[in-house]
Amino acid sequence: MALLLLVLVGVVVGVVLASSLLLRWNEVRYGNGRRKDGDGCLPPGTMGWPLFGETTEFLKQGPSFMKQRRLRYGRLFRTHILGCPTVVCMDPELNRRMLLQGEAGGLVPGYPQSMLDILGRNNIAAVHGPLHRVMRGAMLGLVRPAALRTSLLPKIDAFMRDHLHGWAGSVVDVQAKTKEMALLSALRQIAGITAGPLSDALKTELCSLVLGTISLPINLPGTSYYQGFQARTKLVSMLEQMIAERRSSGDAQDDMLDALLRSGDDGTREKLTDEQIIDLLIALIYSGYETMSTTSMMAVKYLSDHPRALDELRREHLDIRKGKSPEEAISYEDFKSMAFTRAVISETLRLATVVNGLLRKTTQDVEMNGYVIPKGWRIYVYTREINYDPFMYPDPMTFNPWRWLEKNMESHPHFMLFGGGGRMCPGKEVGTAEIATFLHYFVTRYRWQEEGKNTILKFPRVEAPNGLHIRVQDY
Ligand code: HEM
C-alpha cells in the first residue's frame, strides 16, 4: 500500500514537473516577452503549451478568457491560440488604427488555414495587394447603390414575400428559416436560382463547405476539413457548368453572374478569370451566410423580448405599407426611410456580437503601443468588448435600439460592427436591406410567441443549438 502511494506521488510530481518544464520551454521559445533578436519587447502574456498554446482555454472560456487576461495584463496581451502566436488587442483606438493601417502597415488577413484552403486562392477576404483591389472592385460593383435600387432590392422583396408565405398557424424554427433565407436569397441574386433541386444540391455542399472552413486542417476521409474540400470541388463544378450554360445561351440576364461575366468588357476594369468569378461568388455567399442569418434570428429574439421595440418597428413598417397595394414591393426610398429598423439591426449586431473580432497577420514587424510584434504573428482585433463599453453604449447589456437614433453612432470612430479600413464589409448595405425586408414582411404579416425553452449560445458563434422555435399567427 505504502509503495503504491509512493509510486502515485512520484507520478503526480513527475507530471507537474514535466508540465511546468514544457510551459517554461514554450515561454522561452517565444523569447520570454523579449524579442529573440533583442529588438523591442512583446506585450505581456503567456504562450501556454507547445503547439496547442492556450487554444483549449480560449475555446472553453470564451469571452472570460479575454476578460481575465485583460485584468492581468491590460488591453494588449500575447497568447498562442488557433495554432499561432497571437497578440490580442482590446483597445478600441488601437484596433481602429490596426484596421486603417492595413497592408501598407504590414497587416494582411490572418484567417485560419482551413478557411484559406477551402474558400480558394482568389478568396477576397484572404488575398492582398493588386489581386485584392481587383476582387474588391468587382464585389463593390455588384452591390453598389444603383444595383441595390434597381436590381437587388426588387429581387430581395420578391424572395422575402415567397419565403415568409404561409407561416401562420404553425411552429417555425427561426434559425432554420433565416439560414435558408440567407442562402436562397443570395442564390437568387447571383443567378436567379429559386428553391428546387439545384438550390437543394448547392445548399448541401455549402453547408459542408462552411463546416470545413471552421475545422482543423486535417485532410483525412471523414474529417470536416476533407468534406469541406469535397464540397468545394462539387460547388466549383456546378458553378463552372452554370457559366458554360450562360455562355452557350448568349442571353443577357439581370443577375450577378451575368454582371461578372461581362465585367471588364468595356475596358473600365480588369476582366476576371472564371476561377476568380467562382471564388468571388463562393466568398459572397460565405460572408453573408452566417452573419445575415444570425442577425435576423437574434433580431426576432430581441423583438420577442422587447414588446415596446416591436411596436415601434411594426409602426414604421405599417406606415410604409399604408400607401401601397399588398402586391407592391418596397422601394429603395422606403428602405432608406427605415430609421428605426436600421437601429434595431445595429443594436442586434452589437448586443449579440455576431462578429467577435477580426484576424490579421503581420508581414513585417509591427509597432503597437511601444511593443514590437514580430513578422508572422497574428493580431486579433478583438472588437467584442467595444460593444459593451458603457461610455460608448450606456447601460450596455440592455437592448435599446433608440440609442442609435440619438447620436449618429454609425459614424463613431469606434463603430466596427462591419469592420473598418480597406476591408470594411462591402455587403453592409445590401445585407442591411435584406434583414430590413425580412423584418418588414415578418412584422406586418405576423404576430408570434416563443415556443418552449430555446437556448442561445453566444460563443464561439451565436447559435441556437436546438433551434429558436416560435408559434406564428396572422397579424
Ligand atoms: C449583418 C451582416 C454582415 C456583417 C455583420 C458583416 C461583417 C463583416 C465584417 C466585420 C467584415 C470585415 C472582415 C475583416 O476585416 O477581416 C466583413 C467583410 C466582408 N463581408 Fe461582410 N458582413 C455582413 C454581410 C455581408 C454580406 C451580405 C456580404 C455579401 C454581399 C458580405 C461580404 C463581405 C466580404 C466579401 C468581406 C471581405 C471584404 C474584404 O476583405 O475586402 N458581408 N463583413
From TrEMBL:
Compartments reported by the entry: Membrane
CDD domains xref list: CYP90-like (cd11043)
Ligand binding (heme): C425
GO molecular function: heme binding; iron ion binding; monooxygenase activity; oxidoreductase activity, acting on paired donors, with incorporation or reduction of molecular oxygen
Reactions mediated catalytically: 6-deoxoteasterone + reduced [NADPH--hemoprotein reductase] + O2 = 6alpha-hydroxyteasterone + oxidized [NADPH--hemoprotein reductase] + H2O + H(+); 3-dehydro-6-deoxoteasterone + 2 reduced [NADPH--hemoprotein reductase] + 2 O2 = 3-dehydroteasterone + 2 oxidized [NADPH--hemoprotein reductase] + 3 H2O + 2 H(+); 6alpha-hydroxytyphasterol + reduced [NADPH--hemoprotein reductase] + O2 = typhasterol + oxidized [NADPH--hemoprotein reductase] + 2 H2O + H(+); 3-dehydro-6alpha-hydroxyteasterone + reduced [NADPH--hemoprotein reductase] + O2 = 3-dehydroteasterone + oxidized [NADPH--hemoprotein reductase] + 2 H2O + H(+)
Pfam families documented for this protein: p450
Names of the cofactor(s): heme
N-terminal signal peptide: 1-18
Principal location class: membrane
Protein's membrane topology: Single-pass membrane protein
Keyword terms of this UniProt record: Heme, Iron, Membrane, Metal-binding, Monooxygenase, Oxidoreductase, Signal, Transmembrane, Transmembrane helix
Alphabetical list of Gene3D superfamilies matching this protein: Cytochrome P450
One Gene Ontology term, aspect cellular component: membrane
Protein's pathway: Hormone biosynthesis; Steroid biosynthesis; Plant hormone biosynthesis; brassinosteroid biosynthesis
Transmembrane parts of this sequence: none
BP-aspect Gene Ontology terms: brassinosteroid biosynthetic process; brassinosteroid homeostasis; response to light stimulus; sterol metabolic process
Alphabetical list of InterPro entries matching this protein: Cyt_P450 (IPR001128), Cyt_P450_CS (IPR017972), Cyt_P450_E_grp-IV (IPR002403), Cyt_P450_sf (IPR036396)
Family as reported in the entry's similarity comment: Belongs to the cytochrome P450 family.
Protein known as: Cytochrome P450 85A1
Organism: Triticum urartu
